[in-house]
Structure to design on (230 residues):
């Protein structure tokens, strides 16, 4: 069977300490070989230290527009009165932002990442918002500007900038199982999205996806990939 380049990417690095711990454990004891950092998370400094301690773990930026507060001073149009982003996971039904403001905010998040001294592996986004047709040109502009790639969600016309030629998001919710991981089919390259975590005091307040993160961590740290993964 031909080898397949499989990137197992853990989202939300830097959001909480429990998420950081779950990702690192799933890297050391499981197939996670990549992660993307939320630069406005509660535990970014710890995530940076852990990245420096584990250089075999590729790290990119998990661009945010639907959680927490922005980093750029020019992002008032993207926020509510309390200063947090006005967008949610239901962004497709919400009023689109000005693409220029999104560009400046996401550029600020990337620059904050680069200021840590870490190498930028790729880009993706919280809730896959970079694939929203109202702003999907921004991820293309940023990938070109920073000479990197992005998650294959949307932008079919720019496959040359995709991280992999396939994106698998089935290991989520009801799909969290060994069977889902075993059902990944061979191909030239595929990214598998995961969300492992340990419980911490903040986790229930920052996400509705709580218990399944713990299940994901348990399964990932006990999973042995097939021989054709590379």
């Amino acid at each position: 069977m031909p080898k397949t380049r499989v990137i197992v990417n853990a989202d939300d690095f830097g959001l909480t300490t429990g998420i950081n711990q779950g990702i690192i454990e799933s890297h050391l004891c499981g197939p996670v070989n990549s992660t993307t950092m939320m630069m406005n998370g509660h535990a970014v400094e710890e995530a940076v230290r852990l990245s420096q301690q584990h250089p075999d773990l590729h790290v990119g930026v998990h661009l945010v527009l639907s959680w927490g507060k922005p980093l750029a001073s020019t992002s008032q149009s993207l926020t509510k009165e309390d200063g947090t982003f006005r967008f949610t996971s239901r962004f497709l039904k919400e009023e689109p932002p000005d693409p220029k403001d999104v560009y400046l905010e996401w550029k600020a998040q990337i620059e904050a990442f680069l200021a840590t001294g870490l190498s930028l592996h790729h880009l993706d986004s919280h809730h896959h918002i970079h694939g929203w047709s109202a702003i999907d040109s921004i991820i293309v502009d940023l990938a070109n500007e920073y000479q990197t790639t992005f998650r294959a969600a949307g932008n079919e016309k720019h496959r040359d900038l995709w991280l992999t030629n396939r994106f698998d998001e089935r290991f989520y919710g009801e799909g969290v199982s060994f069977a889902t991981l075993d059902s990944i089919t061979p191909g030239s390259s595929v990214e598998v999205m995961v969300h492992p975590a340990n419980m911490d005091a903040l986790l229930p307040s920052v996400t509705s996806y709580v218990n399944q993160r713990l299940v994901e961590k348990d399964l990932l740290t006990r999973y042995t990939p097939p021989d054709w993964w590379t």
